[in-house]
């Protein structure tokens, strides 16, 4: 009996040992499977990071799948009174749009100004600027041949200021400007607002004065890339790309207005001075005229 009991115990022991071995094998298999899943997740995360990196390098914003990035949206481009129907992704930048348009409208991208609620910056996407399906986008700019052929208007009254260009004295204290400023703010001057930036108004900026105290108004014809400078005697239509520079300074004790000079020729001697420019429009005037053009 003892021998039989020993045999049963031995068998029972073997069964227990085999059970333990099987449990160990199962645990190892579970551990290997878990490790494989973890490796798979790491590979997946690395792949996502690589895709995100590719999106950044290509200039596309992250957070959009490839299909959405490549989806083209119908847009209407208005240039020089002509309409061009194009399809273009909203998640591409203004610079990419310029590159797309240069062969369509014949204007090099460096000479284009895209107007979307004012002058659009090159690094903004159309989506960020609020462009939607079927939107109209105005583009201004001149073809290279037109730029090379342009000549500076000769009828405008330039200010010869050879001695004043080297001085650091504020514009409003220089003798050449005091004779205009001392007459005071014109009765019909548009209200000026300091420390505020506004876009160009839909109407002419009027109530300003030239160096002789005559009335001056600015009318921006963005579709023609022109600034119309109107006086009592005439209206000069100036191609905006021909204006070399725009400078301005606030008028002391009347900071809501600026003195502004448009450089219409190759030197500062060809500056056209305007007084009592409403301060809130100064930056918009500079952006519309200069845009991304090199000075």
Automatic annotation (TrEMBL):
InterPro entries in the record: UBFD1 (IPR039120), UBFD1_C (IPR057455), Ubiquitin-like_dom (IPR000626), Ubiquitin-like_domsf (IPR029071)
Xref: SUPFAM superfamilies: Ubiquitin-like
Listed GO MF terms: cadherin binding; RNA binding
CDD domains: Ubl_UBFD1 (cd17047)
Annotated Basic and acidic residues bias: 46-55
Region of interest (Disordered), ranges: 28-62
Chain intervals with Low complexity compositional bias: 33-45
Domain of life: Eukaryota
Domain called Ubiquitin-like: residue spans: 75-146
PANTHER family registered for this protein in UniProt: UBIQUITIN DOMAIN-CONTAINING PROTEIN UBFD1
Name of the protein described by the UniProt record: Ubiquitin-like domain-containing protein
């Amino acid at each position: 009996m003892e021998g039989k009991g020993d045999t049963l115990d031995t068998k029972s022991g073997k069964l227990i040992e085999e059970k333990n071995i099987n449990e160990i094998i199962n645990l190892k298999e579970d551990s290997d499977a878990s490790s494989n899943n973890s490796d798979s997740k790491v590979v997946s995360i690395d792949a996502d990071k690589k895709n995100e990196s590719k999106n950044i390098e290509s200039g596309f914003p992250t957070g959009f799948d490839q299909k959405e990035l490549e989806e083209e949206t119908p847009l209407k481009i208005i240039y020089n009174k002509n309409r061009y129907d194009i399809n273009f992704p909203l998640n591409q930048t203004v610079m990419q749009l310029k590159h797309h348009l240069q062969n369509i409208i014949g204007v090099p991208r460096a000479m284009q100004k895209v107007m979307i609620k004012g002058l659009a910056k090159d690094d903004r996407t159309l989506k960020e600027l609020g462009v939607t399906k079927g939107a109209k986008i105005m583009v201004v700019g001149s073809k290279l041949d037109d730029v090379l052929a342009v000549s500076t208007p000769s009828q405008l009254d330039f200010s010869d200021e050879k001695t004043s260009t080297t001085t650091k004295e504020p514009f409003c204290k220089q003798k050449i400007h005091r004779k205009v400023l001392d007459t005071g703010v014109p009765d019909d001057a548009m209200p000026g607002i300091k420390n505020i930036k506004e876009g160009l108004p839909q109407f002419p900026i009027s109530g300003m004065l030239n160096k002789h105290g005559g009335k001056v108004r600015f009318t921006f014809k963005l579709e023609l890339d022109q600034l119309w400078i109107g006086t009592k005697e005439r209206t000069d239509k100036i191609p905006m790309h021909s204006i070399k520079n725009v400078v301005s300074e606030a008028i002391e004790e009347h900071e809501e207005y600026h003195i502004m000079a448009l450089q219409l020729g190759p030197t500062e001697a060809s500056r056209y001075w305007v007084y009592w420019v409403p301060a809130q429009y100064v930056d918009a005037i500079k952006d519309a005229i200069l845009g991304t053009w090199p000075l």
